[in-house]
Amino acid sequence: MRAPMSWISEHAALPAGLTGWQLGDALIGAGLEVEAVDSVGGEISGPLVIGRVVDFVEEPQKNGKTIRWCHVDCGAEHAPEKAPEPLREGETPAPNVRGIVCGASNFAPGDHVVVALPGTTLPGGFAIASRKTYGHVSDGMICAEDELGIGDDHSGIMVLGDTDDAGRPWTLGVDALDALGVRDDVLDMPVTTDMGYCLSIRGLAREAAQALDVAFTDPVALVTPAPTSSGYPVRLETPGCPLFVALTVTGVDPDAQTPSWMTRRLVAAGMRPIALSVDISNYVMLETGQPNHCYDADALTGPIVVRQADEGEKLVTLDGVERALDPADLVIADDSGAIGLAGVMGGEATELREDTTSIVIEAASFDPVTIARTSRRHKLSSEASRRFERTVDQGAAYAAAHRVADLLVTLAGGTIAAEETVAGEVHALPSGRMDAGLPARILGMDVSAERVVEILRRSGVEVTVDGDALALQPPTWRPDLRDPYDYVEEVGTKVGLEHLPSVVPMAPTGHGYTSEQTLRRALNRALAANGFSEVLSFPFSSDEERAKLGLPSDDRSVRLANPLAETAPLLRRSLLPGLFAAVHRNVSRGNDDLALYEAGRVFEAKSREAAPLPGVERRPSDEELAAIEEALPDQPRHLAVVLTGDWVTGGWSGRTVSADWRVALAFADLAADALGLQLTRTAADQMPWHPGRCARLSVGGTVVGYAGELHPRVVAAFGLPERTAAAELDLDLLVSLFAGRGSIAPVSGFPVAKEDIALIVDASVPVASLAQAVSEGAGNLLEAVMVFDIYTGAPVPEGKKSVAFALRFRAPDRTLKEAEVTAARDAAVKAASDRFGAVLRSA
To answer: How far apart are CA 516 and CA 786, in angstroms?
Structure first.
């Protein structure tokens, strides 16, 4: 919610001299969040004044553009030292005028405009000076809304009417921002679900008045009358709409323009001005918190009906999208069918048009859950739905409808029909009772019963004192006040949570690690227990390291603005260079048998744009903060290992086992097994690994990393021992693939049946894929499959290889018959034959 401070001050008597940040602090103390306070006009300095276009001539240019050479009167106070060139030969410039070149064409002689004189600095640091352009000395600039940062209109310059908002003629040369009433502080606040009433100027003004102990004037002053049907006919056919108010305004001038004061407030609040009737509707919604909708009365056919959507019903909403409705959707309909998605968006068939003169105003109340589900179902979020989802004050509907009607009368010359419709009624919220001493006991501080009553009454609660108890009736805009402890929270917030006594609580029993933390710790324990040593390295890297890895340079590296060392100005994208450095240091000191691993974050840029570095003289703008957020890189956790030397040192107990690619694959399998996952290996050609000695590791088709022997060029570039092996996995991706802890299958008490098969396949067929085909073909009776031999040579044909599998079959409930085992074995061979052309080896 963006709320101009000047708008809030219309309903809360804010103290003189109060700044936007001071008001923000008061609202924060009331339980709201204030993300930013934007100073509209605060980025403009220097002489920005009201001027009047005396006359101009149009001059076509060689580039096809036509400029206007203008004479602009900015008042005697800002008369130029030197008269400008005449517009036409032989003419004498009028007194006080300046010569200004302008590329816009939406103004005429006599129009009042905003002029930035030399010495003015506009938003974005754009300095204005006298300069020669298009053959003339332009002594200033005639400004557009977007150039001043007070609107989005860049189609032409700002053309002011003959008078200001108060009906006074403009005074030439006065400060334009003050004259236009533009200078304002705009509070930007995210509103939590329990404070939905603060999605309005009304709600914020009430909270500000209470926090600052000043008077509050409620813009919702009309009480909803008893149900009546004298106006436009309305029929409620669902409990999802407890109240519907309809007013009719006729004789509306379709050419009436939105006044500048309303336009400025809508823009400051983050809404785009469209047309007067629509702008009034949005203005009242922002002011009261009650969404409303205006229908073209001539486009309505029959009574307005609020009902559930029919099966197969469709609606074209105001955004031009045809939507297939769900029976759970709440719709506004007439005899022609659905004309609006209740509480979310109106329909195209009854929208206000350029020639609309008769308007039916709707202000209704809808079930929050229904609106929230409809909004999500159609992926259609609107200002109205965001308010209805948080519960809208039913008591505001009648007053909001009349506020819209009054503005249509005042600004568009309409007439309010005497007849009106109020279908349904305002339902009071559940009342409650509370011990007057409960807030003091719960808050742990002295809060008298009188103070409790005062706070609750200023919050809109009807309080009846009954001895030591309080009978409480919450206002219609506070559905969050349900039980005594809600009222205690309200009292505590209004007293000031910063005044609560500071008591250090006993440390509660923790909830333990998150599932991700548990998995990562289990993985680390498994790796350490199996002989791998963990190291930590700095997360810095360089372009040279990437080149040494044999990887192409790209723009996804994150470059630091202030690196610790000029030789490492980047954040790492792989853990391997850091591990290589650790290996190199160890080997240089005689440590040759190494199995070093690291788990840490890597960094990949999402955007090519560098993060902005705003100065410390002011708060960063919303745009700068958004740019900083967008520039933050992706930071997944990786897991990597580098292996050199011997894994097992030879001796009397056995031979030497090298720490080679097999151990790198075992490391990856161990990591996956710790997470309850099984890796699939396929041959890959991926730097920095050796072609033909690299395995792509995947889980269910998702690639999670690579393992194998490093490329000789990489080994030489980093000064590593020959035949160094490594593996790197995406740890976050592995954890995300964790499907649960699984279950332990019961141990069968029946005997196992063993079968061995040898299959001849093309040498290019991956053994893992062949094993998977055998496993899938064998069916549920297969308990285990293991490769125990891979053979090439006679009598196996050239280009072929023989892969031998040990198959183990067992049933959980019986001893398998020979025929069952034979059938399962043959099915396994057939599956391998169908998929890879495998042939059962007979000799």
So the answer is: 32
